[in-house]
Amino acid sequence: MSCTIRRNVDISIPLVVVLLLLWGLGFVILFRVPGLCTPVTGINLPSVSVIVPARNEAVNLSGLLSTLRSQRGLRPIETIVVDDESEDSTAGVAAEGGATVVPAGRRPPGWTGKNWACHCGAERARGELLVFLDADTRLSSDGLARLAATWYDGRGVVSVQPWHATVRLYEQFSAFFNLVLVGALGVFSPFRRWVKPVGLFGPCLVIAAEDYQSAGGHVGVRGRVMEDMFLAVTFQRAGLPVRLFGGRGTIEFRMYPAGPGQMVEGWSKGFATGAGRTSILWLVIMVAWITGSIDTLRQLVTASVANEPAATFFWAGLYVAFAAQLFWMLRRLGRFAWYTSLFYPVPLVFFIVVFLRSLYLVVVRRRVRWKGRDITS
User: Fold this and answer.
1) Where are the alpha helices (DSSP H) in 331-365?
2) Which of the 8 DSSP states describes residue 47?
3) For strand 251-253 and strand 157-161, is the pairing parallel, antiparallel, or unpaired?
4) pLDDT band at 289, cuts 50/70/90?
5) Most buried residue, 66, 70, 162, 360, by CB count within 10 Å?
6) Which residues are 203's β-sheet partners?
7) How far apart (Å, rounded) are the C-alpha atoms in residues 229 and 202?
8) Per-residue pLDDT for 192 more than 70?
9) Residues 355, 179: Cα–Cα separation, whole Å
10) What are the beta bridge partners of residue 369?
11) pLDDT tens, 89-113?
């Protein structure tokens, strides 16, 4: 069955219906990205220890420590920076920023650097609530209070994906990584209430010290490259609810400021592993939506090459619909420009190439490199 748009130009109605349905999946993928709770006056929030695993983070660390010193409403009783055998001035920057510096020392066999650093920090912490933060994160002035209040509201485990603050042009190429990382978990869909998270967001984790110790903490995931994907299972097995949130307005980060090489290495580190841990249903939904966007582009190019104005106009409209939807999605995840969405095939190709590289490193070579270390996957 077909509908004639112009003489000798047919557009298949079944194809149009399928592509519109695939376009609609975008609203399922990111139906709602919940933010953190606003602190309520009169609630006695627990004491907080902030733990920052850091390896060669001298450039990033001062920004985080500055935001921690300027917190309103709730301040940490201590900020512990665990120096994971850094080769730069990480320890000195941490000390100057008022943090307690804990040398991680040599890792025991079978541990990755970040997991060992987090474990060492937790062992030294005195707070009732542990807040693990990556060194490249930044908190709003009431960010710590929001994190603690959100934990207090439902207890268990709170994990937040920071809002991605991009600065340079190449950072726009992280668009689809951010989208797939969040969307493939299925927790921001209309079915959030019934979806059990299969992973956490690594840059920000909040958990009671008692719960962390009783669940085994990072010990159970000590050798994992993508520890956030496996920690969720560890905590859930201990009976702890896992709740995920978006960080816009509360916590942000700038990923891979050192350049495109760092970005490729960072996303290659374990993205394929994360995909392997994701629910098949949500992987299928993500792949279907991406396939719809690619096929729409293919139809547009075909019509343009055939010099068929009516068909070109029709497919251009659907292409713009995909681009507009992507812009709506990305703006809730980070500072991504309009042209990133309009020319989405470019960052999409980058995503596919780097994902294939990750697949090769993780599955075939079984070794990835990050911050000067080779990590066995």
Assistant:
1) 338-342, 345-359
2) P
3) unpaired
4) very high
5) 162
6) none
7) 8
8) yes
9) 14
10) 374
11) 999 999 999 999 999 989 999 899 9
Per-residue DSSP letter, 35? -
In angstroms, the Cα distances linking 262 to 171, 239, 358 are: 11, 37, 14
Place of tokens 């201990």: 238
Residue 181 tokens read as: 């990382």
Q: If we measure between CA atoms, which residue out of 256, 220, 280 comes closest to residue 334? A: 256
Q: Are 57 and 90 in contact (CB under 8 A)?
A: yes
Render pLDDT for 195-244 as a digit per residue (tens, 0 to 9). 888 889 999 999 999 999 999 999 999 988 788 888 999 999 999 999 99
- Whole-number Å distance between alpha carbons of 71 and 144: 7
Which residue, 325, 188, 196, is CA-closest to 248? 188
Name the band, by pLDDT with cuts 50, 70 and 90, for residue 293: very high
What the block records as the tokens of 192 is 């959030």
Q: What does the block give as tokens for 208?
A: 């009671």
How far apart are the C-alpha atoms of 377 and 167, rounded to whole Å?
A: 31
Q: What angle do CA 291, 27, 24 make, to 5 degrees?
A: 50
Which domains, and CATH codes, for the chain? 2-30+279-376 (no CATH), 48-162+201-257 (3.90.550.10)
Nearest to 26 by CA among 271, 194, 190, 198: 190
Chain position carrying tokens 């376009």: 23
Strand partners, 209: none
Record the pTM.
0.90
- Residues written for the chain: 377
